[in-house]
Amino acid sequence: xxxxxxxxxxxxxxxxxxxxxxxxxxxxxxxxxxxxxxxxxxxxxxxxxxxxxxxxxxxxxxxxxxxxxxxxxxxxxxxxxxxxxxxxxxxxxxxxxxxxxxxxxxxxxxxxxxxxxxxxxxxxxxxxxxxxxxxxxxxxxxxxxxxxxxxxxxxxxxxxxxxxxxxxxxxxxxxxxxxxxxxxxxxxxxx
Length: 191
Hints:
37% helix; alpha/beta; four-stranded parallel beta sheet; 5 helices
């Protein structure tokens, strides 16, 4: 199981693997910037299970935790569109899809959050990622994690690369977490 090994984060087999998989699969997806990230997100699941590279296309069938990630990538692409009529039409499709995904998985990820590639949600259940939160590449999140602010107008958390959030972690307010941090199980961090 490669789930807990963060010693090679940022280099090694996973990054080489995701680049090769991305080059083959990204022609299937219509949205430019987020398609590379989405393919990397799905490939992380296949890699952690020891599955072959080509199986990352089938990961959403077996892992409902990938559904909110797919919907988030689509939503973040929609809100960045410059063509207003297309943006409004796609947002009308995105919003009900987001709500249904939230009801089925109890994972809420704002389309305005900035999440790097290789995002991994280990388990479905009570995860909230607020708007304008910044999360680096290859973050791993377990159930019961909340990342956001106490009230309106506050600065959002900034989270580095290769960060692991254990079950029940709460990151509230303008907190900065560096790279390669781990085991935030049942911890509350706020300012």
